[in-house]
Every structure is written in structure tokens, then in C-alpha cells.
Design brief:
The protein has about 350 residues and is mostly beta strands. It has 2 domains: about 30-110, Sandwich (Immunoglobulin-like), CATH 2.60.40; about 115-340, Sandwich (Jelly Rolls). Helix content is about 10%, strand content about 50%. It starts with a helix and ends with a strand.
Length: about 350
């Protein structure tokens, strides 16, 4: 009896061992034959229907190529992209034991944009107080750039007339400075995350003028600059006429070490041109009159994935504007409109 009982125990142990080994072998098998399909909606809605399947997979993780991820048990999901672009989508199939197999595909998405905010500058007088505030004074160290102007909220420096906003830099002694101008900003009134931002503008002429149409991260008050990020939609030097600068500033790449590109155009100070950024989680593209000249690769580690507010200004001199022509008396940046689409 004792021998038989021992024999039975051995057989049970062997059986358990065999089953455990069999289950372990099965659980340690990674997903195989991963197949991924994507159907992009033809209505330009941004919808893409993804289907993923693999042997021995219990769920699928989708990296949509724009900083967003989803874990999907079935492998089937319809995802809506917010902006047009070419996205590299990575799909990871996972087994019950956590083993993985992955595959990447590219999808090209077109999205119809809607106007979500604008100023057409059609009402004469002061700029719309519901949309714009002012920076006043000389800032710290000439706004950090050794600029020479004193920013005011006077109508002699910022006025809407005949369908355009005019930001006017003038040579005059004011508040201890030799020049005055204006810097408008939408901080606390409007900000946006991603989209298409464009302005139609005619730039001031004269050595030392430094007009800019740009954006800063909403969190500048807590993290400071450049941690908040900066997107310069358009900058121009009167000392280097017709060269347009498109730039992004962020930690490790700011000031003279910023990332950006330039484009030389004609008649920047005598004709209106359209200055644009197309901004998404994957890229920031800079354009003049619809022609792209620089694309910056965005990713989730950078500060360009939060709300930014708008700024419009004309500075004088400074580290970027350079020396002011001694004959300079007055010049204006005229802006026909600012529009934001998503």
C-alpha cells in the first residue's frame, strides 16, 4: 500500500510538472503573424480605422505617431486625427505573459480645418480688448534682448484703421527709452494647442526694426522661458530685408542656438504676405504664401504639446534687430488678419 501510494504521488508530480512545462511553453510563445491594416476616411474627417490581428495576442497597444497611445483588446479601433500629416503608427501585439511583437505602418491623413478664432481688424480704433492685451515698458534687460523701445498702449503705437492693425515704432524719448512701439498679446484671452495659425502682414522698413508674429506657452509664468517653448511664426530684420525667419525655442535650443529656417521673399515691406505655421504633435511647419521652408520634428518630450498664446510686436534694435539706422523716424507693421484653424 505504501509503495502504491508513493507511486501515485510520483505520477501526480510528473503530470503536474508536464502540464506546468506545457503551459509555460505555451505562455512563453510571443505573438506571431501580426497583420495590421488602416483605412483612412475619404471625407477628410481625420478618422482612420485600424485593424490588428496576431496569433497568441491578448491585446494590442497603438502608438498613433502623434504622442497618443491606446491599449485595445480586440485590435480594432477608429482613431480621429486632429491635423493633417503623415504619421508613423506603431502597433505592439502582446501575449498573456507579456511577450511582444510589433509592426509600424505609415498613414497619410487629410483633415478639413475649421476657423476657431480670428481678428480681422475691421473695427477702427483701439485693438479689440476682448482679444488683446499689452505688455508695457522695457521689460527685463530690454525684454531679455537688449531692445531699445518702450512698449505702450497708446493709439500712436497701436491702432486699427482701414481694415488693418498698425503697430507703429517711433523715434521719441519716452520713459527713458529712445523709441516707442507696442506689443500685443492674447494671454489670458485666447490660446490654442495645435492647428494652423496664419497672419497676413506687411512689414516695417528701416534698419533696426524687428517685427514678430509669435507664440509662447501658457505656462511661462510657472516654468519660465525657454521651458515654456516659443514658436516664432515670422521674424524679420530691417537690416536684412526680405529674409523671413521661422524659429522654435526650447530648452537646449534657444536664443542664438534655436531651431529654425529662413526664406527670402520679395517686397516684404511693401506688400502683404501670409505667414503660417501648421502645428501638430509630430511637426511644426513654417510657410510663406503657402510655400513651406522649414519643418521641425515635434515629439512628446518637447514643450510644444500644450496651449500657446499669440503675440504681435515691433521691437527696435537688440541682439536680433541690430543697430538702428540713425535716420529712422517711424515705421509700422500692418496686419490684415490673424486666423487660427483646427
Amino acid at each position: 500500500m505504501k509503495l502504491g501510494f508513493v507511486f501515485m504521488l510520483v505520477m501526480v508530480a510528473l503530470t503536474f510538472s508536464y502540464c506546468s512545462k506545457g503551459n509555460t511553453a505555451k505562455n512563453n510563445t510571443p505573438p506571431e503573424n501580426l497583420v495590421v491594416n488602416a483605412i483612412v476616411s475619404t471625407d477628410n474627417s481625420g478618422n482612420v480605422a485600424f485593424t490588428a490581428s496576431a496569433t497568441n495576442a491578448t491585446n494590442y497597444e497603438f502608438d498613433f505617431g502623434n504622442g497618443e497611445f491606446k491599449l485595445v483588446a480586440s485590435g480594432n479601433i477608429v482613431y480621429k486625427y486632429a491635423a493633417s500629416g503623415v504619421y508613423t503608427v506603431n502597433i505592439i501585439a502582446k501575449s498573456a505573459s507579456g511577450l511582444t511583437t510589433s509592426k509600424s505602418i505609415q498613414v497619410t491623413v487629410l483633415v478639413n480645418l475649421s476657423l476657431i478664432w480670428s481678428d480681422e481688424f475691421e473695427t477702427s480704433g483701439a485693438p479689440d480688448a476682448a482679444k488683446w492685451g499689452y505688455d508695457i515698458g522695457t521689460g527685463s534687460g530690454g525684454w531679455g534682448n537688449n531692445e531699445l523701445q518702450y512698449y505702450t498702449n497708446r493709439s500712436t503705437n497701436a491702432i486699427v484703421s482701414n481694415g488693418t492693425l498698425k503697430i507703429i515704432a517711433q523715434k521719441e524719448n519716452f520713459g527713458g527709452s529712445s523709441y516707442t512701439s507696442a506689443r500685443l498679446l492674447s494671454k489670458g484671452k485666447f490660446s490654442t494647442k495645435y492647428g494652423k495659425i496664419e497672419a497676413r502682414a506687411k512689414l516695417p522698413a528701416g534698419g533696426g526694426t524687428w517685427p514678430a508674429i509669435w507664440m509662447l506657452g501658457d505656462n511661462i509664468g510657472t516654468v519660465g522661458w525657454p521651458a515654456c517653448g516659443e514658436i516664432d511664426i515670422m521674424e524679420h530684420k530691417g537690416n536684412d530685408p526680405n529674409k523671413i525667419y521661422g524659429t522654435v525655442h526650447h530648452p537646449g535650443h534657444s536664443g542664438g542656438n534655436a531651431d529654425g529656417g529662413t526664406k527670402v521673399i520679395s517686397n516684404a515691406t511693401s506688400e502683404f504676405h501670409i505667414y503660417t505655421v501648421e502645428w501638430s504633435a509630430s511637426s511644426i511647419k513654417f510657410l510663406v504664401d503657402g510655400s513651406a521652408y522649414y519643418t521641425f520634428a515635434n515629439n512628446s518630450s518637447l514643450p510644444f504639446n500644450q496651449n500657446f498664446f499669440l503675440l504681435l510686436n515691433v521691437a527696435m534694435g537688440g541682439t536680433f534687430g541690430g543697430s538702428v539706422n540713425p535716420t529712422f523716424s517711424s515705421a509700422a507693421m500692418e496686419i490684415d488678419y490673424v486666423r487660427v484653424y483646427q
